[in-house]
Write a structure and sequence with these properties.
Length: 416
């Protein structure tokens, strides 16, 4: 399935939009007669089966996405889809209309039925996947903001959690929220409902001041200068991807945060700061692979760990230097920024303590695959290693000729 990053990365320069919604999406796909019996169900007066792809199958979304993306819309330009939601865009009205005409023609050729009540044609701004898209960026939908403004004071613990959940939807748009949400998060975990002036102050902050802090996120442009701000706090990591156009006006592309596991919280601060860099780069690998960028951190140690030539050596001296090896496929420079100017600082501190994120797995092989393809891959690192060892150029025979070694991206691999 396409990610939000993959969709937004293609919208830079778009100023006209159309959203198309399909009617009874999965039912457009006809099942082969040999497998229809797998959908049998009993309905009281007999056994029935589906002749078309039913809702509820675990693989139905992937099948539908593949058919629509690779067979129906494959010849169309300026079009994206996420399941039955289709977005057509163009940098001008003329380009948009050409793309829309081609898209509608392909849908007509494949007998795709539209839900006209939910379609929006030729608009400067549209709602897509819960966000509002326009020519100069994307933001949270107005109805989500209105829900925040009209939310009454919680009277139960479940309402407190409901309100915090609603606020979490706008987390990437709100900065420096950590210090002013402590009381509400503590209340949500207390098990007993109470309400004082301190909780009320935080509640009003989230309803008013936080709304004023909601910013518009920009679209990614591969030609613009790119900087990644990272920071680590005792409980979490934060990363903000920023780009600068020719006018040198910064625009935030995306924000991310991660809570540290109990084991990670016991790391020395130097290793936490290094972890923030590796995690941040891999988190935004879709944007950063095959592109030069600058990593900004307020830790001087990171300039030594990630900027020194010693990181290419066979043996890393610390856990942090071992992490540095994972970033060899990326082309970047490390530059220090004062903590007060680090926009990622707030994201690293606003982590809810109840939030449980996976540990940063040192043995995870996915970072190797990011170097090959920004999307998901079905090949494993073990298969890459075996094929590399058997290759005449990548593999280097030893004097005995009985074993081979291979160097890839600074790693040495040996056959077991």
């Amino acid at each position: 399935m396409p990610t939000l990053e993959a969709i937004l990365a293609q919208l830079n320069g778009a100023s006209w939009f159309t959203t198309i919604d399909l009617s009874s999406a999965f039912f457009h796909v006809e099942l082969h007669e040999d497998c229809r019996h797998l959908t049998n169900f009993f309905a009281g007066n007999g056994t029935y089966r589906f002749k078309r792809l039913p809702f509820g199958l675990c693989n139905a979304p992937d099948i539908f996405q593949e058919i629509l993306q690779t067979k129906v819309l494959t010849e169309c330009k300026g079009v994206l889809n996420y399941l039955d939601d289709i977005l057509v865009f163009g940098s001008s009205k003329e380009e948009h209309d050409i793309n829309l005409e081609k898209t509608l023609q392909r849908l007509r050729e494949h007998n795709v039925r539209l839900n006209s009540a939910k379609c929006v044609f030729g608009s400067r701004s549209v709602k897509f996947l819960g966000f509002k898209l326009c020519g100069d960026g994307w933001r949270i939908e107005d109805d989500k903001r209105k829900a925040l403004e009209n939310f009454r004071r919680p009277e139960t613990l479940s309402e407190v959690k409901s309100f915090l959940g609603l606020v979490n939807f706008t987390e990437r748009f709100i900065h420096k929220r950590a210090e002013k949400t402590t009381k509400l998060r503590t209340l949500a975990k207390s098990g007993i409902f109470y309400w004082t002036d301190k909780e009320n102050q935080e509640f009003e902050f989230l309803k008013t001041d936080a709304l004023n802090s909601i910013i518009r996120l920009g679209y990614f442009d591969h030609k613009d200068r790119t900087e990644l701000y990272v920071d680590a706090s005792p409980i979490g990591l934060g990363a903000v991807l920023v780009q600068f156009s020719e006018s040198k006006i910064p625009r935030i592309i995306s924000c991310a945060s991660k809570s540290l596991t109990p084991a990670e919280q016991r790391y020395p601060q130097t290793q936490k700061e290094a972890l923030a860099i590796v995690w941040g780069v891999e988190r935004f690998a879709y944007y950063l692979i095959n592109k030069h960028f600058i990593v900004r951190t307020d830790s001087e140690a990171n300039e030594f760990i990630f900027g020194g030539s010693h990181r290419i050596g066979r043996r890393a001296m610390t856990r942090a230097e071992a992490w540095a090896l994972r970033l060899l496929p990326y082309h970047f420079n490390i530059e220090r920024v004062p903590g007060c100017l680090n926009v990622a600082d707030a994201l690293s501190r606003l982590i809810c303590k109840s939030q449980k994120d996976d540990a940063f797995d040192e043995d995870n092989e996915k970072h190797i695959l990011y170097a090959l393809d920004a999307g998901d891959m079905t090949i494993s690192w073990t298969e890459i290693q075996a094929a590399s060892e058997a290759d005449e150029e990548l593999g280097v025979s030893t004097e005995s000729g009985t074993s081979r070694t291979c160097r890839l991206w600074g790693y040495e691999t040996y056959p077991t």
